[in-house]
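Sample intake — Protease
Collected from: Escherichia coli
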Amino acid sequence: MAQRQMQASRSNDLIISVNNKPAISALETMDQVAEIRPGSVIPVVVMRDDKQLTLQVTIQEYPATN
């Protein structure tokens, strides 16, 4: 299974949900993202500066490391 990545959040963002599913743990969230096809746009809800924001995030392939 290819790895996937999301790039939309800032370092201080707290991820609340990914693709309408609660972000229970980092590992579970990474597993959820890994199941999404690259190029898909999904909603990601974050807390930023005490405000809840919904971001539209494009899933990308994670570059392989050697």
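Post-analysis note: The domain at 4-60 is CATH 2.30.42.10 (Pdz3 Domain).
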